[in-house]
Amino acid sequence: MPERLLLIAGAAVLAALPFHLDASWLQAGLFAMAAAIGAIGLNLLSGSTGQLSLGHAFFLAVGAYGYVFFAADGTAETAGLGLPTPVAAVLAVVSAGLAGLLFSPIAGRLGGVYLGIASLALIFLGQHLLFNLESVTGGYNGRDVPALRLAGFAFDGRSDLSVLGVPFGAMERLWFLGLALVAAAAFFARGVLTGRPGRAMNLIRDQQTAAAVMGVPVARVRSGVFTLSSMYAGLAGVLLALAFQRTVPDYFGMILSLEYLAMIVIGGLGSVGGAIAGAAFVTLLPQILTRYGDSLPLVAAPGTDGITPADAARHLYGAAVVGTVLFLPGGLSGRWARLRTPPGRRRAPSLHHNAVIARPDTEEPNP
Q: In terms of residue numbers, what domain contains 233?
């Protein structure tokens, strides 16, 4: 019951924020929501199944650029199909899933560090395509993102709609769409983890050989989870493109994939709530340092000498990852679970969640 009250109170606070925050903070919040969706998908793969992927940014790019390609009208310089934007968003997510499905045979056979190295090739492939396939991606300059139009309601910058005297522009409208998407993504992921697929995923993560002996189709489960994780990343890419309003190739690189790994480690591997908390921490920390960096030591304003807010943020959540592995093996979600448990019933934290993604599983017996 207290958890439900906390969820209700949290939802009420989030719903009230567009009436009090300016557009820059709303955009930062939307970035955090997009990151939460992508982190939930990566947590299904790495935290619950034990598969390390360094190519998550590739599937975000497929979602973001796929939406632009399907929704935008073609011009002399760039191609586009001009489809209705809801259809374009769905096709972008499906495209990310198909890209993951094409890579899933590799994900089904490799595990641990070996899958991480193999998936790293997706980043280099994606960067090459984004910069050179100019008719689709716009090249180095990127492309403008068409505003989403759903049931006659446009998620654009027009302020002809106002609620309680607050003009509802693009950020305010997208805020509630983002909340709905995060809630749906979290609900579906929890259903997967608490059901039979989740038990199979956890068994593969903890005891792969035992899972195969018990009849769990290890390769098929790994492939399916990789495809599902790719679709989560595609949805995150669509929301990210809508919030940013322009796609930029430089953004979808190796650093983004590493940031997603930091999100799930800090939040707690295998936890939906932990993925959301880790995404909020990693995404919002640079924004907070940028806004309040003048009053912090060693942090310089952008464009000046010294440590920039973005670099300072990376140092901090890099330290947070090390601290989490050493002192909070279960991440923020594990710490929260221990706080909720009476002292007499607490057990020592397990290290397997943080160790599993480094386990070099490369072979599996055929069941």
A: 21-358
147/129 Cα distance (integer angstroms)? 24
The strand pair at 166-167 and 153-155 is best described as: unpaired
> What's the CA gap between 236 and 62, in Å, rounded?
10
| Predicted structure pTM score | 0.85
Cα(52)–Cα(55) distance, rounded to whole angstroms? 9
> Rounded distance, CA 360 to CA 329, Å?
19
Q: Can you tell me the distance from the alpha carbon of 171 to that of 293, in angstroms, rounded to the nearest whole number?
A: 24
Cα–Cα distance measured from residue 200 to residue 211, given in angstroms and rounded to the nearest whole number: 7
CA 102 to chain centre: 20
| Residue 211: both structure tokens together | 């899972």
- Grouped pLDDT means (10 residues each) for the chain, 367 residues: 70 81 86 95 89 92 95 86 94 96 88 85 93 90 89 67 63 88 94 89 85 85 92 96 91 91 87 89 82 62 64 73 74 65 55 45 43
What are the tokens at 166? 């607050």
CATH number, domain containing residue 200: 1.10.3470
Say how many domains are in the chain: 1
Measured in degrees and rounded to the nearest 5, phi and psi for residue 248 equal: -130, 120
Within-domain flag for 40: yes
Residue 366 lies inside a defined structural domain of this protein: no
For residues 202 and 206, give the distance between their C-alpha atoms in angstroms, rounded to a whole number: 6
